Amino acid sequence: MCSLELCGASPSKPSVAMFLRELTEPTSTQKGIGRVSSETLKKAGITTVADLLLHIPRNYEDRQTVVPIAQAVAAGIAANTVVTVITHDYIGRGKNATLKIFIEDESARAALLCFGRNFLRSALVPGKRYFLYGQFSYKYNELQTSAFETEPYTQNPAIFGNILPVYPLYGSLTQRFFRNVIQAALRNYAPDIENELPERIVEKYGLEQKSRAIRLVHFPGSLEQAEQAKKSLGYEEFFYLQLVIKRRAKKLKASPRHSGKIGAGLAAKLEARLPFGLTTDQRKVLAEIRDDLESGTPMMRLLQGDVGCGKTLVAFIAALFAVEAGEQAAMMAPTELLARQHAETAASMLEPLGVRVALLSGTVAPRMRARLLEALACGDIDILLGTHALFSQDVKFKRLRLVIIDEQHRFGVLQRLALVEKGELGKSPPDMLLMTATPIPRSLALTVFGDLDVSTIRTMPPGRKPVETHLARIGNEEKVYSWVSREVKNGRQAYFVYPLIEQSENLELKDAQSMFHNLKSRVFPDLRLALLHSRLPEEEKKETMDLFVGGKIDILVATSVIEVGVNVPNATCMVVEHAERFGLSALHQLRGRVGRAEHQSYAFFIYDKELTEEGRSRLKAIKETTDGFVIAEKDLSIRGPGELTGVRQAGRFKLVFVDILRDLELLKTARADVEQLLEDDPGLIDPQNRVVRTVLDRVPPFSEETAAGG
What we know:
- By secondary structure, the chain is α/β, with parallel strands linked by helices.
- Helices cover 39% and strands 17% of the residues.
């Protein structure tokens, strides 16, 4: 039996588990990094040696395989060959002349255009041979390149014959800069990097030793070595991610509590007041939740369903189960706009039943906040709704039974679990219900979230009509504007959404502020328009939304701040300009802001003429289906699962070497290995275990500030 403690690094040497995060020497201390380059690195988030070593190549240049010029041009790849310099010439005259060097290899003759590099006249001598790497193309009836590297032909070249890393660049920093400073950092620190994975795991999969792996991921001897190094380091990332998730999940499941029947009197009273009946799927999910609440272990359940399927109502009824048991519930949303809307809906639906509802956000005045927190701690608040403010240390419940997290993908994996720690001290942790309108495949959900039960709502409330979706190229907006005008004159309302708040010097995109004034003065001068975006004060946002909900505003011009949760049944038109700039899930969420009543609704996605292949795929998918489950699958295939699962926001668990979707099988393998280790060595669950404690200590503490930072 092999425990991580026995396989860990010795205390006398620096421990670098969890992706080398303990190499905290500032980059400014490294040779070759001056004041200017240090500042540039800092702006890119590279401040320590660890950050530098984790600046992983985006790809590699193969300087080993010989690729003659003619073969490279035919294949559309870079040439890697030996050339002979034929002669020199110049383009232009005088001091502005540009050196032009004619060369040839075994396959073709070509020209090197030396823009800003006339000094190469003395470096590339006619009649001599050189290694050359460059991308050639036909221009002006000849093969030529202006982007090339050369090296004198010798038996032992410094660069040619190697695999060179190609790094993401920032500012004026070059590939040569990153190669030199990372190579220096590896010389200074790599020898002290030790394995922390169990040796039996390393041997079982033939993983590289960590010191060697981190070297090879930067400077491999072959492309195969680079892939093996990434696999070894990626496995470790998955291993530790799963260790923390499984440990916390097992801790929750192992927490005993008294089981018993949960009353449904309040739920029945609420249902009797509703002007509609619950769908079959809603009833099924509520039965699953009630069974969980009556069981002897805390609930950990993911509720997924399409936009507008009635998840929020299910959440409110689940909260009533907790309240009827004499306990409290907390519901967290990612934005104040959504949290406030949930609170207003909960107040109108639940307060007539005698349920005490409150809202807590970062903008609550200090005096009001103090009174609210006192009432919460005394048990005088039954259901607390809010934003990240619920993470704050001064938020204490008397008897927290149920934690509900809406739009769970907006929170990090570990952040989502932070509210669990708000449970009553010394008692079992509260039940947890995660909700998402971005469905996640079950295998992925189980792998990322640990032992999580999954409930699904597929049926929509009766009377809803599918939203008609139309695509329009920029330049054809007038037809869309006419359609919207007709809808508004028929008593309906509309949204116009833009990717930017204000004009950008770097992006030629329409923005919400400019378009608000344009729409108001030129396109819809007779209609009532308002502007909404994240930089407005919360009170102004609340006032604007209240006016829109009350029908006092015809058209709401906004950014994606209205992407989630906004519910205005009278709104029937959603116009998204520069739709190619939004993710597929975001487009589907925005479309879900309309079609929330019996009226026929419409979504217009206006796109730029210059579309990337990914942008074209997103628009094709959003046009073809309104099924959120199909959308989710397509979204996963297009952009990966990071945003869907929240793993990209999982505290310091930022995956560097692997991608969850691409490397799902490796993730499953790591998960199975962690489960086996936990079974063989239950001591791994003990937080006093040295290595486990070290791993957990590297996850940042939860506070309102760190949570808001994601």
